[in-house]
Design goal:
2 copies of one chain form a homodimer.
Chain A: H1 8-15, H2 19-27, H3 34-47, H4 53-60, E1 65-70, H5 76-91, E2 95-100, H6 105-118, E3 122-126, H7 132-141, E4 145-148, E5 158-161, H8 164-177, E6 183-187, H9 194-209, E7 219-221, H10 226-239, E8 245-248, H11 251-263, E9 273-275, E10 292-293, H12 297-314, E11 321-323, E12 328-329
Parallel strand pairs in A: 1-2, 1-3, 3-4, 4-5, 5-11, 6-7, 6-8, 8-9
Antiparallel strand pairs in A: 10-12
Helix pairs in contact in A: 1-2, 1-3, 5-12, 6-7, 8-9, 10-11
Chain A binds a DNA duplex through helix 2 and helix 4.
Chain lengths: ~350, ~350
DNA sequence: GCACAGTATGTAAGCGCTTACATAGTAGGT
DNA sequence: ACCTACTATGTAAGCGCTTACATACTGTGC
């Protein structure tokens, strides 16, 4: 190893120009003469110079860094969104700082403050529900900010996402149209998860309009995990044997629910219909393949990158609200309602 | 909005001490008297002071930031590892800079250089295969560095992972023990993916020792996606109807393969056995549930965080090689070999 | 030939923090 | 009472870059 890493000053020396010129050459090349640029680039090359990010950030008040806090990265929809967000940022020389909240508003607040301390140029959070101090901190920084996964036309902040209420309605409509009357629900924890609440509300609204009700007893709340979904479904089956369709908060829960149906000897969709949410890649290669809502995670990530870069480079901070379409993807786990003999009755002997 | 954000200088003023004392209070509190600390914290509180990350980084040459480049975050095993890595870092006040290589060494190099420019204190990559310039850059920086997902006792660099060759052997052994002789393989793209290569090599080695061969024609290489796995399986079934077991490069490919079996009217494990790799959470709630290898992604992430923090805080950079155990998880997609009448022959008439 | 506008480059003052070194204050040993 | 050894705090010099401003140079129109 030689001595220290080369600095901009070393480059300036080697190229026989001033530090200002080198800096300009890097940041506003149009202001530097062609031949000088070449000399500078040659010097950079031979010295192996790499700009010092922190120094740059300190002097320019821009870190070329975006912060994102998701509930957990270990969930296909969040990781898909982050995948596209990171790609979009990278294309423009921006780097992603990633943190997780574990669905806790307090943890989220803490992570947000850490990120802001790091000096991010933009921030991405999931949903609208946040600790009040989060909003305070953001406003103090005046940086572009996006609420992901939610679309609220009246929101004070930018949001890029879907209309979760409408999505819930669509699911309910699908099942009602198939003739289902007794519908159960396996939901994620709704506390501090506006998406889960809104989807459920959509279901409830629609049923109400149809003169039906979603009894609270038919809602089981649990963490988003396959095993939890499985247990929840067993619970529903035991407590409400008349249920003929179950709306699950996401695909993972739905897979667990399908497992439970199988274990309970219920055929899907013959005895019971099941829906998911997110349309994870794998649910289409399963048998039966899952009826679910398409979650525009990838587009969300890409749009977010575009929006942030746009605002940052323009030096503006306008609120933008982007609604992304979701589609109901009907596959094999939902079917027409069919009367099922109650458990315990003599089946097949009539 | 008030005026500017408060600086350390403002805090010093408000608390009636020097900037050095405030800085010490934040970084080495044991060197500051109790009562002075309280005054300072009070000032910080009322001013709403947040340290400026870039300034801190510039002055101290530490960014409290770790960089990681994974092939893609949109794959359960990588996202699990990143989940635990991020948590571990956060616990110690470190932040994660995340980038993706899309399985391309060139993209990876570019991302690594960007991260190094940002001034990371430690770096995490996946696998041992990297662009030569990656190693050069890292050595110039002298920062702790880990190769994840691989365990190589003779590696020049730290690594935390599993013995991929041994894992491949175990899978082969399992199938051979069940009586399978004609084994197929659906692998991820092996070019610049040492994990995939080594697993395949393990399979090959074991078969060879048993006097069997893994013909190259029985290996289908494709991207890690359910749909690709499905197509690959159809291909294998068509070209090699005598195959009675297929080893898949990961669980996603295996799910696609199961789909293909179903479509082709082959029962699993009756007609054909299928194995995965990674033990994703959902594969245990499927029917049939998947036989697979457990990938210690979570432990990997946690260990990596511990190792990096340890090295950074100690100011050292010792190479450490940690092997994590993997287990074969036998479930329902593998079973004893059973002779199957070839397609097209009159089945069930003998 | 001269004033003027326009362009290319250089000078130097920070950005907000850390930290080596200097200094003041305190306690213990003799 | 004096010296020594600490500990607690202050002073000030950067860390490597950006950028406002100053300066030098070029070409134009009159």
């Amino acid at each position: 190893m030689k001595s220290k890493k080369p600095t901009l000053q070393d480059v300036a020396h080697a190229a026989g120009v001033s530090t200002a010129t080198v800096s300009r050459c890097l940041n506003q090349p149009e202001k530097v003469r062609e031949d000088v640029q070449q000399k500078i680039h040659a010097a950079i090359e031979t010295l192996g110079y790499v700009p010092h990010g922190a120094a740059r950030a300190l002097a320019s008040r821009r870190t070329r860094t975006i912060g994102a806090v998701v509930p957990t990265i270990d969930n296909a929809i969040f990781s898909e969104a982050i995948q596209y967000l990171q790609r979009g940022l990278s294309k423009h020389g921006y780097t992603l700082l990633l943190a997780q909240s574990d669905f806790s508003p307090d943890v989220e607040l803490h992570e947000v403050q850490t990120l802001l301390g790091r000096g991010i140029d933009g921030l991405v959070l999931v949903g609208e529900d946040h600790h009040p101090a989060v909003f305070e901190s953001i406003e103090k920084q005046q940086i572009p900010y996006v609420n992901l996964w939610t679309y609220n036309p009246t929101s004070k902040y930018s949001c890029i996402g879907l209309d979760n209420i409408a999505a819930g309605r669509k699911l309910a409509e699908h099942l009602v149209t198939l003739g289902h009357k007794e519908i159960g629900n396996i939901s994620g924890i709704r506390l501090s998860n506006d998406r889960a609440r809104q989807r459920l509300q959509g279901v409830r609204d629609y049923l109400q309009e149809q003169g039906m009700q979603l009894d609270d007893k038919r809602i089981v709340e649990c963490r988003y995990s396959g095993e939890q979904g499985r247990l929840a479904m067993h619970d529903l089956i035991r407590r409400h044997p008349d249920i003929s369709a179950v709306i699950c908060g996401n695909d993972i829960l739905a897979l667990g629910a399908l497992c439970a149906c199988h274990e309970a000897g219920l055929s899907v969709p013959g005895d019971i219909s099941v829906t998911g949410f997110d349309n994870m890649e794998i649910v289409q290669v399963l048998h039966p393949s899952l009826t679910t809502m398409n979650s525009p995670s990838r587009r969300m990530g890409a749009h977010t990158a575009d929006y942030l870069i746009e605002q940052i480079t323009a030096g503006t901070n306008e609120v933008k609200r982007i609604e992304l379409a979701t589609d109901l993807i009907v596959r094999e786990t939902t079917g027409a309602f069919r009367l099922r003999l109650p458990f315990g009755s003599a089946q097949g002997t009539v």
